[in-house]
Amino acid sequence: MSKAIYSDDERRVIKQTVEELGNKKMKEGCHGFRDYSDKTIREAARLQLNKPKSENNAAISVIGVVLGANRNWEKVVRPNLDSLKDSQKYGSMTFEQLEGLLIAINFEGFKEVWGHRDEKKYNTLKELVAAIRDFAQLHPGLSDFDLMSQWARNAKLENRRTDILGSIRNVGIATFQHLRLTFGVDTVKPDQRVMEVLQLEFGKKLSPSKAILEVEEIARIAGQSVAMIDQIFVKYGSGYLKKNSSCED
Q1: Long-range own/partner contacts, residues 213-221 (CB < 8 A, 24 or more apart)
Q2: Model pTM greater than 0.90?
Q3: What is the pLDDT of residue 3?
Q4: What is the CA angle 113-230-208, rounded to 5?
Q5: Of the residues 2, 132, 143, 171, which has the fewest C-beta atoms closer than 10 A?
Q6: Are 67 and 84 in contact (CB under 8 A)?
Q7: Co-location of 140 and 207 in the same domain
Q8: One domain for residues 46 and 102
Q9: Is there a single domain that holds both residue 79 and residue 45?
Q10: Alpha carbons 209 and 174: distance in angstroms, whole number
């Protein structure tokens, strides 16, 4: 697949559209509104991206990715994820400890840990954590976060179907990209919000893989990182479009 070729006029329109979306005020419903209610979308995106990812617990971050698929982040996922992070019992757990929990208790019992009774997501998480353990055996001595960062840097979308994590059932393009974003790669997660913004604000109805190329080109035109465009689109789409409120933010 090749990137789109745009005329100078088209590039100006794209850059202006990105500016307009970024200048919108954060409002209720926007991803991250609770933390950045007094900011513009661009300011909120920049502040969020500037937070050191290494401060995050890697096991809980992977849980967040699994929970976030096709769920409203602010309403459904974040409250349970915050409770997990604040928990004395689970807040600092390692991948090894998480795998032990997944082996010891079924999806119904695991509701105590992550607040959801979802067998499909439970099985996806279980398979992911087992694959992460296999990956760790090939890269001994790394912390959980450094391990996932190494995977994220080396993982390629075009090789997803043979990737140790990307080949897991129910790990689609959006989840694969979400994992890479979470662990420091400058890329985009082509979830429902990003796809809606591309279609409704840029006139582009695309497949997830083509949407990634499109956002990469928009980032080049706008002079921004790909992750920045991802966050602007997610925050704008979740707060201003609301085409499907049950979808992932």
Answers
A1: 213/1, 213/3, 213/4, 214/3, 214/4, 215/188, 215/190, 216/3, 216/188, 217/3, 217/4, 217/6, 218/14, 218/18, 221/6, 221/11, 221/14, 221/15, 221/18
A2: yes
A3: 64
A4: 85
A5: 2
A6: no
A7: no
A8: no
A9: no
A10: 9
Take residue 158 and report the two structure tokens written for it.
């075009």
> Tens of pLDDT along 7-26?
999 999 999 999 999 999 99
In a domain, 83, yes or no: yes
Identity of the residue numbered 36: Y
Structure tokens at 177: 């990209």
- CA distance linking residue 213 with residue 46, whole number of Å: 22
Residue 176: partners with Cβ closer than 8 Å, 6 or more residues away: 155, 157, 160, 163, 165, 166
Q: Which of 182, 210, 225 is the last residue in one of the domains?
A: 182
E-strand stretches of 40-164? none
Phi and psi dihedrals of 116, rounded to 5?
A: -130, 145
Amino acid code (one letter) for 35:
D
Q: Which residue has the tokens 């929970």?
A: 67
Structural domain that includes position 105? 54-182
Tokens standing for 173?
């393009």
Residues 139-163: pLDDT tens digits?
Answer: 999 999 999 999 999 999 999 999 9
